[in-house]
Every structure is written in structure tokens, then in C-alpha cells.
Amino acid sequence: METNGYDDRNRAFLQAFMARSTMTFEEAQPVLAAILSANQGTTVDPEGITHEDIGAFVDAANSAISPFDLEIRTTRRQDPKEANQDAPNTPPVLVYALVNTTSDPLTQLATTYSADEIAFVKRVLDFMFDTNNRRRCEGMVITQMQAVQLAKAGEDRRRSTNVGTQQEGGAAQNLTMTQAQDMMKSLVSEGWLEKSRKGYLSLTPRALMELRTWLVSTYNDDEEDGRRRRAPRIKFCAACKDIITVGQRCDDHECLGRLHDHCVRNFFRMQQAEKCPVCKEDWSGESFVGERAVEEASRVRPSTNVRQRTQDTPEADGDSGAPEDSEEEEG
Ligand SMILES: [Zn+2]
Ligand SMILES: [Zn+2]
Predict the structure, then answer these.
(1) Predicted confidence pLDDT, tens digits, the chain (331 residues)
(2) Would you say residue 309 lies in a domain?
(3) What is the CA(276)–ligand 1 centre distance, in A?
(4) Which residue of 92, 152, 226, 281 pairs with 76 in a disulfide if CB–CB is 3.0 to 4.6 A?
């Protein structure tokens, strides 16, 4: 395919991204096919559009938009459900997203939301990546009910978990519960958060691509003399080196070995035995990161004040498996 020079086809491709902000490979195929069809006056088969075709348009778009601190990035969905359910060998869904390469999420939200709403979003992120991201249980998810409980601004939430929130301190006002609910809906509809079948809200692939740098600088301690004061909250897959919020972890909770579900197969294919990439102990594949960790933790330590739900309640709010870890402190 000829993509020398930046022309109407490139502009149309970029516009498609501006309108959607994120596209899977399967969604991008018909978009690019339509653009090429219109340009050439002949019908282009979407099925014939390859990764390389889209990659060429992404590269051209990136050259055009980099002065504006924008970039189309590529990632793979971390969750195993789509990839594994029916056809275990289906590769994970490839996602392209138009992301802002410099500003943090709180700055980006500033054009649409009030300071109090943005402070609420920060409390939600703190909950996901600090409160609900402990050595014993790396959930990195939040339920609707947990989010609504963060509507109040002033409360110190019993545990001093507000890492990096000093500057917003007492300034933020409470949201009402309805406002908090509406904010969560907006964050889902704008593609920052997505809701799982069991009702857990997590960052979307696009949000992770966009926020990776910010998450690391916000939730991981700086290294001092080559040593961190505590284990990093934001961790990376030993195989693909991308951020991991859904996947598998080493059985040793002190170990930083992590692998995406879709990276496990390829990673161990090249080894004689399934050993942790970091500590070299056996890899059971039964310790998890993400909502499976939360589900596991709630099974192991059933909380007396948690209502027991049947597992397959449709459209469950997902508030059942919520560990309110107050006893646990990272040392
Ligand atoms: Zn990986
Ligand atoms: Zn290990």
C-alpha cells in the first residue's frame, strides 16, 4: 500500500481516531477499508487490511500529531476472557488508542469537570492503586459501591492512603452520592473505566496507555540509593514489559514476578519448566492480579459484614467481594 506523503486518506484515518479515541484492530479494518475505497473509487475488502497497513497509517498519523503531544499507541487487552473462552489460541485483542503523551489525568479532566469532581477521581484512583492494591491482594479495581463511598472529600478514610494528594487536601468539597455515581458513569462512557461482568470497574487499555507514566510516578516510590522504601505499586509483566493490572503473579507475595495471562503461554514455551521469571521458583498460575485476586481474597477471608451473593447473579453490583483491608499495612 502506498502511504508516502500525508494526504486525505491519512487525515481521514486520524479523524476516525479523534472521533473514537480507541479502536480494536477489528474495528480499524473496516474504517481503513472505507477510507481507501472512497479514495480509490474501488471497493477494498476490510478483511484484506493487515496490521502492517494500519501500522503504516498509525506511523504517519503519529508524525503529524506528535507536535501536539498526541500519539496513537498500541496495546493488547490484558483480560483473558475474550481470548480464552472459546478458542484458547486466539491472540489477545489488539487495541489502538489516541493518547495524550504529556499531561496527567487530573489535568485532562480539568476541561470537563470541576475541581471537586477531579478530586473525587483522584480518590477513586487512590483506592484502586493504593487501598485495593496490597501485597496480599493486588485488586486494582473498584466497585460502584466502593466508589460512592468515596463521595465525601474530607474524611481521612481511616488509613492514611492518600499518597500524593497533599495539595488537594482540605480544599475539595464532598460530592453527593448521586454526583459520585454520575461521575463513575461518565468515566465509563468516556473510555477511562470499564465494568467487568462481575461488576468491577478497572482502567481501560486506553487509560492504561495514557496514564502509565503518571501511575508510576504517583504510586511508586522513587528509588533511593538503588533501593525502594516499599515494593512498587505499579508493576510490569516480565515477558512483554507492559504494565500489568490483570494477570498472574508469583506465589511468593514478596516476589515481583508478574505475567499477563496471554504472555504466560509464549513465555514458558521457551523454558523447560514453568518457573517464576524473577525468583525462579515454580510458577503455579494460581495467584492472580486484578479482580480474580479480589474474588480469591474474599473467598479466603470471608468478611462477616459482607452479604453473600450467588456467584452468577446477573448484573451484580460486584460489591460482594470487596476487601476493606484495614489491618494490612505494607512494610
Ligand atoms: Zn505481558
Ligand atoms: Zn517469584
Answers:
(1) 544 579 999 999 999 988 888 999 999 999 999 999 999 999 999 999 999 999 999 999 999 999 998 999 999 999 765 444 555 556 778 999 998 887 777 888 888 899 999 999 999 999 999 999 999 999 999 999 999 999 998 655 433 444 444 444 456 889 999 999 999 999 999 889 999 999 999 999 999 998 988 999 999 987 766 666 778 999 999 999 999 999 999 999 999 999 999 899 888 887 778 999 999 999 999 999 999 999 998 887 655 444 444 443 344 344 444 444 443 444 3
(2) no
(3) 14
(4) 92
Q: How many domains does the chain have?
A: 2
Q: What are phi and psi of 114, to 5 degrees?
A: -80, 165
> Strand (E) positions, 25-141?
70-76, 94-100
Where in the sequence is the domain holding 85, given as residue range(s)?
A: 8-100
> Residue 94 is placed in which grid cell?
489488539
* Cell numbers found for residue 77: 487487552
The CATH number of the domain holding residue 266 is 1.10.10.10
Query: What's the chain's length in residues?
Result: 331
The ligand with the least distance to the CA atom of 264 is 1
User: Residues whose CB is under 5 A from ligand 2 (ion)?
Assistant: 250, 252, 255, 257, 276, 278-279
